[in-house]
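Technical annex B. To support the medicinal chemistry partners, we prepared a structural model of the target in complex with adenosine-5'-triphosphate, based solely on the information shown next.
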Amino acid sequence: MRKKRKGSETDASTDLGVVNLDLDHAGSVGSSNLKSHYSLEDCCRLKKRCKEDADIHIEFEGSFKSRLAGIATAPPFGTSSLITPTRGLKRKIGCIDVATQMGRKKKIDDDYVTGEAIGQGKFGSVYLCRSRGSGAESACKTLKKGEETVHREVEIMQHLSGHSGVVTLQAVYEEAECFHLVMELCSGGRLIDQMLKEGPFSEQRAANTLKEVMLVIKYCHDMGVVHRDIKPENILLTKLGKLKLADFGLAMRISEGQNLTGLAGSPAYVAPEVLSGKYSEKVDIWSAGVLMHALLVGSLPFKGDSLEAVFEAIKTVKLDFQAGMWESISKPARDLIGRMLTRDTSARISADEVLRHPWILFYTAQSMKMLPIKIKLKNQTGAASRQLVASPEPRLGRNMIDNGSVSELPSSESCYSDDQDECALIDALATAISHVRISEPKRTRLCSPTGPIVQQGSSNMKANNLCKAF
Ligand SMILES: Nc1ncnc2c1ncn2[C@@H]1O[C@H](COP(=O)(O)OP(=O)(O)OP(=O)(O)O)[C@@H](O)[C@H]1O
C-alpha cells in the first residue's frame, strides 16, 4: 500500500461512521432478471453520506432503517475523520488542478453540448455530452453537492485518473449546487449486462476479465485507495471492450496499516469484516472473489431473501468448491477463489498475489498458443522440467474457450490419455499453487476458505434465480 498522501482523509483512528449500503439494482435495463435478489426495488437507497462529528448516524430510507441500525458502525468518540465540505473542498480536491480551475471559470455548457441520458445512478443521471471544440463524445455525471462522498468521489477520480483501467476524468465543472464530471465515454455498456446476456464465462474469459479487474484494483491499492464497491455494475466497457472501473462514490483513501470502519458496499459483494468491524483494502479482494464466482458459475455465492439473510450468509455460509457446478471448473480456479473468499483477512491474498496466481497466469499469458510453457515439475521422478504447449483444441464441456486458441484448463480427473502434457501442466500448476507465497511471512496460508465450504440451499441455485442474483 502506498504511504499516506497529503490530503488523505483517513488516518489510523479513522472511523467513517458511514453506512453506504447500496442495495443495488442491476440498473435501468428493463429486465426483471436484473433485479437484485431481495426485492431491492422496495428497499431503501441508503444514502452515501458522511458526517464528521460523533453524532454521525446512519440515515436509511424506508423500512430498512431499523433493521440495519444494529449493524451500523458509529465513529469512535471524539474522532473526526472527515473534513467539512465547506472549508475542505479546495484542500481535498486540490489535485484537481487544471480541469477544476477551468471548470470553475467556465460553465459546462460553454464547452459541451449535453445529450441523452445514458445511465442512472443513485445521485443523478449520467448524460452523453459532446465537446463543442473537438466534437468528441464524453459522459457527464452530475453530482449534487452536500454529500461528503461527492467531494471525495471527485478527488479520488482525479487521483486515479490516467490509469487505463480507470474511467478517465476529463474535466470538472463546479457550480453552486453541483459538480459536473466529464468522463471518458464507455459506450460498451456494463460488465453485468454482458454477464446476464451471455451466462457463465469460459475459464479463459473469466480469467482475463478478472485479471483486468485485479490490475486496476492493484493500482487503486497502490495509490492508497480502497474502492469498496467492486461489482460488475461498476465495471464499464469501452467501445473496444476494454474494462474500466467506475463509480468511486464509496472509495476511500487509506494508508498502510490503517483500518476503515463503517458499512459500505453492495450487500452481495460486501466482505464479512465490513459487517463486523475494521477492514482494509482486502475488502476489494473479497468483492472480486464474489465477481469471480459470478463470472464462472453465473450466480452469486451469498444470497438470501432479506438483507439480514444475505449478511448472515456472508458471515457463515461455507461454500463447497469441490461439488456441484464447481466440479466442472479447474482446480486452480477453485484454489484461487478459495483464497479470495476466505474470511480470514490475513489469509486472503492481495491483488498482486491474485495476479500471480497460476490460474490467472495460465489463461492470460499473451502468447500461450505460440510459446512453449516451461514448467518445472518439482518432486516428480525423472522429470526435472518439461516443455508443454497448451493445446489449441477446444474441449467439450461448459467452459469452452471462446476463441479456440487455448483449450479449457480441465480438472486433473478429466484429463484424457492423449492429453498427457495438459495433465502434467495441471499437476505443475497444482505444484506451483502450493508454492505460491503469501508476501507477509506471518500470514496463514490456506488453500481454501477457513472451513469446509458448502453451497447454499438449492433454491438459490435455480437457473431462474441466477440473473436475479445480480
Ligand atoms: N463514463 C461512463 N460512460 C458511459 N456510461 C457511464 C459512465 N459512467 C457512468 N455511466 C452509466 O451511468 C450509470 C451510473 O453511473 P455511476 O455508477 O457512476 O453512478 P452512481 O450514482 O454512483 O451509481 P450507483 O447507483 O451504481 O452507485 C452506470 O451504471 C453506467 O451505466
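Notes passed to the chemistry partners:
The pocket of adenosine-5'-triphosphate is lined by residues 22, 27, 118-119, 121-123, 126, 139, 141, 167, 183-186, 190, 233-234, 236, 246-247, 249 (CB under 6 Å).
The longest strand covers residues 112-121.
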